Amino acid sequence: MRVGGLLPSQTLKDRLLSINVTLNNGHSNDQLSLSFDDRPGVLGNSIHLPTQGKTIDIAMGYETYLTSMGRFQVNHISLDGSGSGRTLTVAATTDLMLTQKTQTWATTTIGAMVTKIAGEHGLIAKVSPVYQTQAISVVNQDNESDLAFLNRLAERYNAVCKPLAGNLLFMKKGQGTLPTGLPMLLPVSIRPQDIVQWSSELNEREDYSKVIACWLDWTKGAYQEVSAPAMLVPGLGKQNVYRLRHLYNTAGEAKAAAKAKFDELNRGDSTLSMTVIGNPDISAEGSIAVSGLRSGVNGRWIVKSATHSFSSGGYQTSIQAYMEPTALAI
């Protein structure tokens, strides 16, 4: 842990009761909570309270393997007391990028947009190759913060956008990155001996076999349709078709939006809650491979959120995950 770029004092380390870092998907910022024993010192002095906006860098793991969980900014402090003592809790979150802007982005790519916004916030852009050259003819940022705007764009393309460890990520849902921002090449293996407890809700939802999107072809003065997949898939029984209401500017944008919506609609409703021995490689939108439990639970899951907790009880990671959808050819 570093506070304002400096290592904490021995007194602060001795008073630390717990660390909780929650890594969320792009819809919510990552969160940090630190709890300290706030009993008065021998001279009656108390722990110095951090100022709002103070930066806290956290790394978690084991003696020979520490992984950065990110940089957080203090946004809330709470004090509690009783006859047995006092507790100081410091809450912090990642950079909210709150300044609202209105501007038009035209004739550009997602990669170029993320790179420009990242640079304005002192971050390094890391964009999945599938989005790096995705063309954008025109899109408006209307009184939105940069992060809110990029999250709206990410929703359209079935992506996740979030600041993490000095990076601004724009990645495909379920692709996964390590907390350092580097791509996760393989799912994290979870075996019975790693698990403290688990529960799962196995649900099915009605799949859509096709998504249709429209775009305006100015050369012909007519609306054109594209779909994902390009044709109905035989053998699925009832064929459900979903039609997007938005009118897109180009065939490429319409196709990308249709594919993103198709992936979203066919993502399973099954969920998994699990607490495992602490593993710093588990991160939101990464994947885990569960084995040795039972059918319906074994397999690959996408992590929606991961909470890394350290206290007197040791280091544990709590996971909320959803089942990876079965991909159909697009």
TrEMBL record:
A Pfam family matched in the record: Phage_GPD
Name of the protein this chain belongs to: Phage tail protein
Upper taxonomic lineage: Bacteria, Pseudomonadati, Pseudomonadota, Gammaproteobacteria, Cellvibrionales
